[in-house]
Amino acid sequence: MTIMKTKLKHVWQLARITEAVEARGELSPIAEIKSARLPAKRSYLLNKQLDAIAKELLAIEQSRNNLVRKYGQEIDLGNGATQIKVEPGTQAEKDFWAELTPLLETEAEIPGEQFSIDELGNAELSGNALDALGFLFTE
Question: pLDDT tens, 88-109?
Answer without folding.
Answer: 999 999 999 999 999 999 999 9
